[in-house]
From TrEMBL:
Belongs to the short-chain dehydrogenases/reductases (SDR) family. One of its GO terms (molecular function) is oxidoreductase activity. PROSITE patterns: ADH_SHORT. This is Short-subunit dehydrogenase. Signal peptide: none annotated. InterPro entries: KR_dom (IPR057326), NAD(P)-bd_dom_sf (IPR036291), Sc_DH/Rdtase_CS (IPR020904), SDR_fam (IPR002347).
């Protein structure tokens, strides 16, 4: 089903997967709400969508700020009056082993990658229920299905997302609330730069894994197609990590042994 005329709100739209998804979904002719903290980057993405100015709203805010979250929901509602699809895509990665990761850093990861996504969804859900239905998506990760080295906090947050959004789907299926969990493998985005090291500072380096990953626009096209089809889960990626999804289900012992041998 096309999103023509639908109101779509994408968080993490200033970069990477969110920006590419904005460009991909723009082909349908929706009304787009783009969020992130970097206003100039959001403006660039708005231009890249090619949509008329009145159909794109830039709504910058820090997703961990509860007051800002509430204000943006109000602003979005005032401008467009409804919301058909919320894509909870903002996120931050990690580059530090368990014992090197301070508890405050772990809490930041959980705040950005889990609690903020849940809070925004809870703020939008009453609007969707009042209008008779809606669609909520969240960008989880293969790291939401499998734990690996140097990412314990990120993996924990992404596993939590998978559980919470699966439960949301089950709870509200009869209210015509559709829920999509997006499960990317390595995608070629700058995600590693903002990834948190143990003390909470930015990793500030590129990642070979991401550089070898799937092209971000190809990834966004796959996600857009899955969203149009109202898929419950969209797995997207091109590397060996995608095999982890079926190995975890059918041969978990083998997968655990393979992951233990990875460097890091
Ligand atoms: N790239 C991959 O290989 C990969 C794989 C699996 C899952 N994912 C997930 O995909 C999503 C997008 O990641 P990406 O690869 O596109 O990375 P990215 O290019 O670094 O984009 C991350 C986005 O999240 C936003 N963001 C981060 N912290 C925020 C905050 N506190 N408040 C508001 N916005 C915030 C950033 O916006 P501002 O900087 O403007 O605030 C940016 O738009 C994330 O949830 C990530 O975990 C990525």
């Amino acid at each position: 089903m096309s999103f023509k005329g639908s109101v779509i709100w994408i968080t993490g739209a200033s970069s990477g997967i969110g920006a590419a998804l904005a460009r991909a979904l723009a082909a349908d002719g929706p009304k787009l709400v783009l969020s992130g903290r970097q206003v100039d980057a959001l403006r660039r993405v708005a231009q890249q969508t090619g949509l008329p100015g009145e159909d794109v709203m830039i709504l910058p805010f820090d997703i961990t700020d509860a007051d800002a979250r509430a204000a943006t929901v109000d602003q979005m509602q005032t401008r467009f009056g409804r919301i058909d699809l919320l894509v909870n895509n903002a996120g931050i990665s990690q580059r530090a082993r368990v014992l090197d990761t301070e508890m405050d850093t772990l809490r930041t990861l959980m705040e950005v990658d889990f609690f903020a996504q849940v809070a925004l969804t809870r703020a939008v859900l009453p609007l969707m229920l009042a209008q008779g239905g809606g669609h909520v998506a969240v960008t989880a990760s293969v790291s939401g299905k499998l734990g690996s080295q140097g990412r314990a906090g990120y993996c924990a947050a992404k596993h939590a997302l998978m559980g919470w959004f699966d439960a949301l789907r089950a709870e509200h299926a009869r209210d015509r609330i559709r829920v999509t969990t997006i499960v990317p493998g390595y995608i070629d985005t700058p995600i590693a730069y903002a990834a948190l090291t143990g003390d909470g500072s930015a990793h500030a380096k590129p990642s070979k894994g991401n550089a070898r990953g799937m092209d971000v626009d190809a990834c966004a096209q796959r996600i857009a197609q899955g969203l149009r089809r109202r898929r419950r889960e969209i797995a997207v990626g091109k590397g060996l990590e995608m095999h982890a999804l079926w190995l975890k289900r059918w041969f978990p012992g083998l997968l655990f042994r393979l992951v233990e041998r990875l460097p890091g």
